[in-house]
Give the backbone structure.
Amino acid sequence: MRPETLAIRTQTERTGEKEHSTPLFLTSSFVYDSAEDMAAAFADDTLDVNIYSRFSNPSVDEFVKKVCLMEGAEEGIATATGMAAVFSSFMTFLSAGDHILSASAVFGSTHAILTKYLPKWGIEYSYFDMNKPETIEGLIKTNTKLLYVETPSNPGLDIIDLKFVADVCKKHNILFIVDNCFATPAVQQPIQFGADLVLHSATKFMDGQGRVLGGVVVGKKELINQMYLFIRNTGPSMSPFNAWVLSKSLETLYVRMEKHAANALYIAKALEGHPALSWVKYPFLESHPRYDVAKQQMSNGGGILTFELRAGLDGGRKFLNSLKWLSMTNNLGDSRTIASHPASTTHSKLTEEERQTVGITPGLIRLSVGLEHPDDIIEEILQALN
Ligand SMILES: Cc1ncc(COP(=O)(O)O)c(C=O)c1O
């Protein structure tokens, strides 16, 4: 079966109740038939038996299995949030004395982990510019353990050639981790290009309706096994309820991403050249600096676009205040279109220099394009721009 079908047809084994829709295993622990079975479950970390929902749960396993099938991964593990996925992958594979090389254009909290927390524990980091992949090799040190990218990046929509980076990592024996949150597996499968691990904030398009938090990491079995022990012992596990919601959502991910992308491209094209904007950025616009790479590794441009208001920081605030019905919130990947102005909100505590490092300009508006009629969305944006 194809991934589109597997996302719909993968389901926990039907119970005696003959349910059609997948059941929710809202239980914190599991029982045993005998003292011997219980002892065996605890004796072997690798035994495939449910013990406690911090370790494993059928609803969570169903969600993870679907993501693995969609990403073409051997194994996976779910986490409570996207940040728990990022943090757990860093903590599992990095030790004091190691060096991590990351794209500078990463999500704000990932930037905080890299710059504020990892150095506290003796782990060094360096940033590279996603638009200069040729500089990566020169930044590799003898203690470089891991290379991290988001593509497309949040919120700058920078794109990097995954195959190129994967080849550099292979040559230097470095673990390559990709945050695939913006594209989703319905649009891009980084493992196909050589990534070792792929992670997501499932809170975004995977949920698709702004309801629950979640994260997931998938990739090589031997790597996920190490992450499993870290997560099992330290506790950032996914709630079974959230997993159930997310697993149902994955049934519609492919069709939703097609519509998000069609709407986003329509709006990006309609806005390009507007006199109030200095630029519009969207992976599948020919004007995107990495349009060729986007076409090569993504099946559509995804649901996020950005534009820069000529009126800068004040213009950003005014734009948000002029919206009539479009949602003003920091989340993304919802059926409802969302506008955000990172410079005055999510990234306002960063210094101007830090904002530049992560690709945030004063008048940058990030639009998470929803599933409404595209003409309604563009009319709302145009009236706010006017
Ligand atoms: C690219 C990216 N990675 C990670 C995260 C963190 O995810 P969460 O909010 O689920 O912790 C986000 C959240 O916006 C994100 O956009």
